[in-house]
Amino acid sequence: MTLTSLVLGGRAASREAAIHSRIDASQDTAIILEGLPDGRSDLDALPASPLLKIVRIAPGCMHCTGNLVMRVTLNRILRDKPARLYISVANTEHLDQLRLFLTQAPYDAWLTLDADLVCEA
Looking at the record's lineage, which domain of life comes first (predicted)? Predict the structure, then answer.
């Protein structure tokens, strides 16, 4: 099971800084970032590592876009069986539906939702 946290609130830079501060370099970690960074990201400074995979997806409600981009991205990431997954969410309008999507089949067999990381503006 992949321990998964949704990273919410604030600007992209604050969400990415929150993720950066929690990365364990010895743990296989994947990060899904919604949208483009608003300036330089703390994640850009990380050295390349086979234990770290960072993927950016287009901005837009992950629920309203039919989950296609999220489903494809998750499926690709989960093939590598990361121990930890962070999903940075820019639009929290349909957060309950996103959580439901992540806790239903087939993802209920692969993901364990951990506490959300809530960032300040």
Answer: Bacteria
